Every structure is written in C-alpha cells, then in structure tokens.
Amino acid sequence: MSDYETLDYSVVDGICTLTLNRPEQLNSFTVTMANELVDAFTRASTDDDTRVVVVTGAGRAFCAGMDLTKEGNVFGLTPGLAPTVQDLTERLDDPEIFEGVRDTGGRVSLAIYACTKPVIAAINGAAVGIGATMTLPMDIRLASTKARIGFVFGRLGIVPEATSSWFLPRIVGISRALEWTYAADILSPTRPWRVAWSAHCTSLTNCCPRRTNWPANSSTVARRSVSR
C-alpha cells in the first residue's frame, strides 16, 4: 500500500511518523486500521530511508480502542468457526484462520515487535483497550499530560488482547499488570504509573535486546525525533 485510509505515513529526515488518522472517531481501531498498520510497519522495516518510527494520533486522542459502532463482528472474525489445535498449528496462514480466528490486535502487536527499526509511541491523549496494548511492543512510550491509559477489557467481559498478557507483565511486573487489568481503571499521567510504565525503556538497546540490526546512531535519531 502507498496510501492509507486510516493512517498518515510520512518519512522526513529518517523519521517515519505514523499517525492514526480517524480524529472524529478518536482514532478508534478497525480491521482496516489493523491491516494498514501491519503493512506500514512491514514497509518501515524494509525502507532504508526510515531509521525510527514514531506513532501518534490525530486530534485529541491516541486511540480510543476498538470501534464498536461497526455492524457484525467488530474484530472482523468469523463466528461459528471451531478451529482445532492442529488447525492453528498447520493452517495459521490459511485465509479462513488468518482472517476469521486470529486476534486482530495481536497481528498488529507482532508486526510492531518484528519491526527492524526502533518504534516510539507518542501518546497524545486517550489510549484505551487496543490503544494501550498496541504500545506495549514499542521500544519507548512517551505520554503527554493529557494521556489516559486504560486496560479496560474487564468492563466488557473479555480477556486482554493484542498479546498484552505477555508484554504487560514484562514491562510493569505481574502484580501491577494484574491490578491494572482486573481493576480496568483509567490511569492518569501521575508519577506512580508513569515510572512503572517506562521502567524498562530507559534505553533502546536495553528495552529491546532482540534487535541485532540497529541503524547507525539509532539512539541519537530516536532522541532527536522526540524533540521534534
């Protein structure tokens, strides 16, 4: 894809700015956005002109979670499918399984985790549900004073998605992760949770040791992008 329906994608001076662009809907998440995000991170990974990716939201929100106004299954999944363990092992890329069963937000999180460039979340407002969980595999999370973070799945009677049950405990610890997901509160940008939120993101290499192909001066590029 060169043009996106739900995203703005631009690269200037080595910095790819990826903006969730549904401001009238508070950048709520859709299947189209999921597919475009996967494409965008794959594209950034292979783009030699991109040295760091900064993700933010248009308007006053970062991402207000899944768009629940859509008709049918808002996650784009196919009701009634009963895949077996063998199906999920051997047919993971089969369109019926890929589109009808796999966690939509999880596909985005895995694409971010697989991105070969440092990824920075610039959380400019509400980041709720998938809006919060999609930031977990990013290397650095920066929250403005207007940010509101919410792992609110318990309010909807669903389990945390987008591989957050793996990422969140590794960032803030198991006890705090359980507290945040069970209480399903909206967290304001006060010191106690901000310290925990960024505890393992003090440096790019320490935060994400899986990366072995950092571009030259990637830490400098990331710091420069934050100040822009």
Sequence-ordered SSE layout with sheet pairings:
Elements: E1 7-12, E2 15-20, H1 31-46, E3 52-57, E4 61-63, H2 85-90, H3 95-100, H4 104-114, E5 119-123, E6 126-128, H5 130-133, E7 140-143, E8 148-150, H6 153-156, H7 164-172, H8 174-183, E9 186-187, H9 191-197, H10 204-207, H11 218-227
Parallel strand pairs: 2-3, 3-5, 4-6, 5-7, 6-8
Antiparallel strand pairs: 1-2, 8-9
Write out the strand line-up for the largest beta sheet, numbering strands in chain order.
Answer: 1-2-3-5-7
Helix content: 25-40%
Low-confidence stretches: 199-228
Tally the beta strands.
9
CATH architecture verdict: Alpha-Beta Complex
- In oligomeric terms, what are we looking at? single chain
Overall geometric form? globular
- The amount of beta strand, in percent, is 15-25%
Q: Average pLDDT value?
A: 77
CATH class: Alpha Beta
CATH homologous superfamily? 2-enoyl-CoA Hydratase, Chain A, domain 1
| Structural domains: how many | 1
Order of helices and strands: EEHEEHHHEEHEEHHHEHHH
Query: How many individual helices?
Result: 11
Biggest sheet features: 5 strands, mixed
CATH topology assignment: 2-enoyl-CoA Hydratase, Chain A, domain 1
Radius of gyration, whole Å: 17 Å
Distance between the termini: 27 Å
Structural class: alpha/beta
Walkthrough of the structure:
By secondary structure, the protein is an alpha/beta fold. It has one domain (7-71, 107-227): 2-enoyl-CoA Hydratase, Chain A, domain 1 (Alpha-Beta Complex), CATH 3.90.226.10. Helix content is 38%, strand content 17%. The chain is built from eleven helices and nine strands. The protein has helices at 31-46, 85-90, 95-100, 104-114, 130-133, 153-156, 164-172, 174-183, 191-197, 204-207, 218-227, and strands spanning 7-12, 15-20, 52-57, 61-63, 119-123, 126-128, 140-143, 148-150, 186-187. The strands form two sheets. The chain has a five-stranded mixed β-sheet, sandwiched between helices. A four-stranded mixed β-sheet has the order 4-6-8-9. α1 packs parallel to α4 (104-114). It is globular. The two termini are 27 Å apart.
